């Protein structure tokens, strides 16, 4: 790559594309406007339009003519710049300028960043303790309420009492599989399948999985559907405890309609 470091030029920033990180310098000698990238500026920080600069040139590696190799703001009036001082800045930029250009990090910081990201990903794969807070206590109370209703229903059918622990276990492992798939960017379990497991009695296990794995806790639409399922279970058992005859009658009517169809 050919450079023209020895000939420092004076010019003015006449255009800057903030979103793209480049602009153009108009040289004072009347020559063609010069392309300047943000990496050529001190600290990698863009200069405002109208700023006088001292710059050196280099040949564009893509064959598009000349571009600014280094450019620094010019202090004082045009033509009266201390070029020795500017040359030192261009040839030997401060250490922090090289580090901060384009938001890049020193090698040690890059290594630390990669290590932190790796540690974060490893933590994502490990189980966390269930937080003991008002929400967890409330969910535990709802689960106990539903199990109480299932116990009372044993003379009619033991299926609900069997379904809650069994489906909760299946839901927990389904969440674990989906979480692992999310980390590995492989095939995911559809949200509708997870909700089906919750609806079949696995919502307590799904709650434990959400909190211990931090999975499916951010998406608002998913959480709304989850809590609707919980409310339906609680409403069902509240109706069973308050008016079991009415609930049995409704279930029989629903079954008869289904069979007739």
UniProtKB/TrEMBL annotation:
One Pfam family cited in the UniProt record for this chain: CSD
Classification via Gene3D superfamilies: Nucleic acid-binding proteins
Keywords associated with the record: Membrane, Phosphoprotein, Transmembrane, Transmembrane helix
A GO CC term attached to the entry: cytosol
Any one biological process term the GO annotation gives: regulation of mRNA stability
Source taxonomy: Bacteria, Pseudomonadati, Pseudomonadota, Gammaproteobacteria, Chromatiales
Transmembrane segments: 130-153, 159-176, 224-243
Domain CSD: 8-73
Domain of life: Bacteria
Transmembrane keyword on record: yes
Protein name, as recorded: Putative membrane protein
CDD domains: CSP_CDS
């Amino acid at each position: 790559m050919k450079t023209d470091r020895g000939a420092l030029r004076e010019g003015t920033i006449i255009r800057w594309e903030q979103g793209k990180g480049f602009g153009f310098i108009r040289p004072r000698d009347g020559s063609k406007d010069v392309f300047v990238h943000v990496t050529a500026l001190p600290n990698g920080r863009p200069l405002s339009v109208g700023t006088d600069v001292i710059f050196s040139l280099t040949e564009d590696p893509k064959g598009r003519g000349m571009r600014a190799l280094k450019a620094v703001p010019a202090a004082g009036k045009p033509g009266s710049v201390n070029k020795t001082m500017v040359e030192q800045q261009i040839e030997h930029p401060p250490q922090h300028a090289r580090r901060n250009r384009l938001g890049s990090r020193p090698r040690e910081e890059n290594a630390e960043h990669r290590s932190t990201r790796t540690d974060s990903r490893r933590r994502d794969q490990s189980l966390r303790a269930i937080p003991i807070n008002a929400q967890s206590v409330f969910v535990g109370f709802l689960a106990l309420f539903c199990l109480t209703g299932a116990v009372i229903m044993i003379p009619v059918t033991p299926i609900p009492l069997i379904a809650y622990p069994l489906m909760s276990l299946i839901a927990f492992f389904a969440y674990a599989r989906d979480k692992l798939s999310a980390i590995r960017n492989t095939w995911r379990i559809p949200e509708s399948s997870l909700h089906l497991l919750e609806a079949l009695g696995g919502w307590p296990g799904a709650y434990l999985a959400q909190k211990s794995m931090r999975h499916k806790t951010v998406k608002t639409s998913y959480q709304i559907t989850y809590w609707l399922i919980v409310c339906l279970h609680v409403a069902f058992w509240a109706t069973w405890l308050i008016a079991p005859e009415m609930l049995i009658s409704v279930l029989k009517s629903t079954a008869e309609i289904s069979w007739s169809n």
